Amino acid sequence: MLPRFKEGAVRVLIETLRLSKYGNSVDLSDIAQRARATESFVRGVVIDVIGDLNNGQISLRSELRIKVALEIARAGLLREAARVLTWQEFERFAERCLEEIGFRTEKNVRVKGEGRNWQIDVVGFHNQLVLAIDCKHWNTPSNLPRFKPMADHQRTATLHLLATLRERATGSDNDQQALPVILTLSEPPAQFAEGVVLVSVEKLPSFLSGVTPYDEGLPFITPDSLVENPMSQSD
């Protein structure tokens, strides 16, 4: 975060993301008005984060928008950053959050099972830990039963993912533990649904810092689970 700018800088960055959504070109004066700041202050914040401006105009490509969102997140405002991203950027944002703490990531992973294809938005790998994340960039349901079909789908997709990884594995990779996760924009009504972790983007960093393979408090899918669940066998 930019310590010399503090809260005012965060407002500027949030409004910059909000106004530049979908590739819109934005005037510094518009950002200043929305962020309740002077144009010179806005200019200093924006240049510090994204570099030079084009005659007072800002047009951010997707990767720069993610960079701005990460600056907001480092200030402790993950949810605010995520809310002003498109759903595609939300997935990339989740991916970058994983990468920032040492995960290797793959996006839009497809595996086969039960005669169909399954897609997982973001998969994170760290030693024996595999996180299979479904990113939900919409208002989080307050009713837990509404998560059931999504959770069933995510756990099944994760079973097929682990089965596929095990088929390709050598050595210690056979001990990988997979955890199905649904990442929400707002706080979900519970921590778990149908054997799937529900976590808000705001709590993602603290969740990631504490998760370890074989944690008995988390619904990991292990190699033994593949034997117990014939449905997980890949075609």
Q: Features of this protein?
A:
two-stranded antiparallel ribbon; alpha/beta; six-stranded mixed β-sheet; single chain; Arc Repressor Mutant, subunit A; disordered N terminus; disordered C terminus; 235 residues; Trna Endonuclease, Chain: A, domain 1; 9 helices
What is the global morphology?
Answer: elongated
Total tally of structural domains: 2
Number of helices: 9
Looking at the overall shape, the CATH architecture of the largest domain is: 3-Layer(aba) Sandwich
Instruction: Name the helicity range.
Output: 40-55%
User: Which topology of the largest domain does CATH recognise?
Assistant: Trna Endonuclease, Chain: A, domain 1
What does this structure look like?
The chain has helices spanning 6-19, 28-35, 39-50, 62-74, 78-83, 87-100, 148-168, 204-210, 223-228, and strands at 26-27, 57-58, 104-113, 116-126, 129-136, 177-184, 192-193, 196-200. It is an alpha/beta fold. The chain has two domains: 6-85, Arc Repressor Mutant, subunit A (Orthogonal Bundle), CATH 1.10.10; 88-232, Trna Endonuclease, Chain: A, domain 1, CATH 3.40.1350. The strands form two sheets. The protein has a six-stranded mixed β-sheet, sandwiched between helices. Strand 4 and strand 5 form a beta hairpin. Helix 1 crosses helix 3 and helix 2 packs across helix 3. The radius of gyration is 20 Å and the shape is elongated. The N and C termini lie far apart (47 Å).
